[in-house]
Specification:
This protein is mainly beta and 165 residues long. The chain folds into 2 domains: 48 residues, no CATH class; 81 residues, Beta Barrel (OB fold (Dihydrolipoamide Acetyltransferase, E2P)), CATH 2.40.50. 8% of the residues lie in helices and 35% in strands. The strands form 3 sheets. The chain has a 4-stranded antiparallel beta sheet with strand order 4-11-9-6, with no helix packed on it. Strands 8-7-5-10 form a 4-stranded antiparallel beta sheet, with no helix packed on it. A 3-stranded antiparallel beta sheet has the order 1-2-3. The longest helix is centred in the N-terminal third of the chain and has 13 residues. The radius of gyration is 30 Å and the shape is elongated. 16% of the residues are buried.
């Protein structure tokens, strides 16, 4: 008996008016009963597997090993030559994917050292297949770009440091 077969069988049994089902195949006996007395469990069947393993075999649980997780990339949130106190931060208004250009073969919207004006598009953050242009809310100069193209960004993550004019 494979898992798909059992799932189909349980679905058919659950949808039927039958109270009990008993199947024996290749030394495996499956007995399923609908418990009408226990209202808390809804109409879920009770499953009793007997003889699931032939008597000459025993079940030995295998240890589960966690997959290695790569260390998170460190993002440098510190400006290169300015102190944070006089820099304006542009933050991501949503969780999404950061894009530095309008299309893969286009120039980046902005570069470090570039002057920007209020309302100028700095990047795009894609969220749920919607492209959201992130605009500057001040006039100034880009001091730091704190994320890379096609990188995931979090809500309120600082994307740019701008030195106000």
């Amino acid at each position: 008996m494979d898992l798909q077969y059992l799932k189909k069988l349980l679905k058919i049994f659950d949808d039927s008016t039958a109270e009990d089902l008993e199947i024996e195949e290749k030394g495996i006996k499956l007995k399923i009963s609908k418990n009408k007395e226990d209202k808390s469990s809804g109409n879920s069947p009770i499953i009793n597997l007997s003889g699931a393993l032939p008597s000459n075999q025993s079940y030995q649980p295998q240890p589960v090993h966690a997959a290695p997780v790569p260390a998170p990339k460190e993002v440098n949130n510190e400006p290169k030559s300015e102190s944070n106190s006089n820099l304006h931060e542009i933050k991501s208004p949503m969780v999404g994917t950061y894009y530095s250009a309008p299309s893969p073969d286009s120039e980046d919207f902005v570069k470090v050292g570039q002057k920007v004006t209020k309302g100028q598009t700095l990047c795009i953050v894609e969220a749920m297949k919607l492209m959201n242009e992130i605009e500057s809310d001040i006039n100034g100069e880009i001091v730091n770009i704190l994320t890379s193209d096609k990188e995931a960004v979090e809500y309120n993550q600082v994307l740019f440091h701008i030195k106000p004019n």
